[in-house]
Write a structure and sequence with these properties.
With 365 residues, this protein is mainly alpha-helical. Helices cover 73% and strands 0% of the residues. The radius of gyration is 22 Å and the shape is globular.
Length: 365
């Protein structure tokens, strides 16, 4: 007999994909929504039930979310994975890609160790809807405090990125409107995206070995892709300046996301800004860090769905996974642009309002 309807699976899948990347806690929403709807939803979608198929389902959806992240960042992951293998082959860590690979590995170790040991315990113990609502409010406080008490270094990093973006916009706005940009303009645009100044030296990431070369014969969509690659490489070059110890501390913040209601990406962004990253770079680092963690969590649970826990819901799993992947891909595209100019404050307000309202409703209902 099915433990989950297609409507339930569809709603949960879409919510999982969107809220996994928005800093509002996917697990918190997946615990709260069934309780708020009530009826069969509360019975079918109970994450705290022993050997819950719903728990296996929502964690299994992480595979679809991770695939969406891999698709969005596939060029970056090719570079980073290549950097990992080249560091082993050369027995040195010098390039930006090599450093990024090892920063991600180190930053993932703490949550990996804690998650393997306590993940199920945390999710069952704190899967109570009222507790999830309370932790959602805590998440809102964390996001609000992260914006309110940002360090001078983080604010300066934001200002520097804004100034660079403004300068680059003035430099390429006219060529961008031309029907057929010259090769010199295309090359200059890519160099500008990497932070290069008029003299050819990059601001903050000058002459980084192994970086993407300026495109001398690109136009249209190809030139746009190369601009994006250059900007991504420049961001990674800035991130590597943080260092391994700071990356470990930032990555450790992911442990808090084991509590239903605390957002992985939200706390990592706040930790990154606290350590001096710009908001935009903190968001990028959080998404890159999330990919292996989300994928590993999904792989560990997806096997359960091929056993007794998956009986009667495998079709629902497929539908939910598709919606989760689509939602995650659209979300990361939106958020990468959103955090270039906007803050975590709207998400903080949302978490506080939803958490408080849910706590009151569930307490009196």
């Amino acid at each position: 007999m099915s433990h989950m309807t297609y409507l339930e699976a569809s709603v949960v899948g879409l919510i999982q994909g969107v809220t996994e990347l928005f800093p509002v806690s996917s697990l918190g929403h997946n615990v709260l929504i069934p309780a708020l709807v009530g009826g069969s939803w509360a019975a079918d979608l109970n994450v705290a039930a022993p050997e819950s198929p719903y728990l296996a389902y929502i964690v299994g959806l992480h595979v679809a979310t991770a695939i969406a992240l891999l698709i969005y960042f596939w060029r970056d992951w090719l570079r980073i994975i290549g950097g990992f293998f080249s560091s082993i082959k050369d027995r040195e860590i010098k390039t930006v890609d090599q450093k990024m690979a090892w920063m991600i590995i180190l930053a993932t170790i703490p949550v990996g160790l804690v998650g393997v040991k306590f993940e199920h315990t945390f999710r069952v113990l704190f899967g109570d809807p009222i507790r999830a609502a309370i932790f959602l409010m805590v998440n809102g406080v964390i996001l609000f405090a992260g914006e309110k008490f940002r360090t001078r270094k983080s604010l300066a990093a934001d200002a520097e990125l804004a100034a660079d973006a403004d300068a680059q916009g003035r430099r390429v706005v006219r060529p961008a409107r031309a029907a057929a940009p010259s090769t010199a303009v295309a090359g200059a645009a890519v160099a500008a995206a990497a932070g290069a100044g008029p003299g050819g030296t990059a601001s903050g990431v000058a002459a980084v070995p192994g970086g993407p070369a300026p495109a001398m014969h690109a136009s249209g969509h190809r030139a746009e892709r190369q601009l994006e690659s250059a900007r991504a490489y420049a961001a990674d070059a800035r991130l590597t300046q943080v260092g391994y110890w700071q990356a470990l501390l930032i990555g450790s913040a992911q442990i808090l996301a084991l509590f239903a209601g605390i957002s992985r990406d939200g706390v990592v962004m706040v930790a990154g800004m606290f350590r001096g990253l710009s908001r935009q770079d903190a968001a990028r680092f959080s998404f890159l860090l999330s990919t292996p963690v989300i994928f590993a969590a999904g792989v560990l649970k997806v096997g359960d769905l091929f056993g007794p826990l998956g009986d009667g819901i495998r079709g629902q799993v497929l539908v939910g996974s598709i919606l989760s992947g689509v939602g995650a891909y659209l979300s990361v595209r939106f958020l990468m642009k959103y955090f270039q100019t906007r803050t975590l404050t709207p998400f903080a307000i949302y978490c506080l309002v939803l958490g408080l309202g849910s706590t009151i409703y569930l307490s009196v209902h």
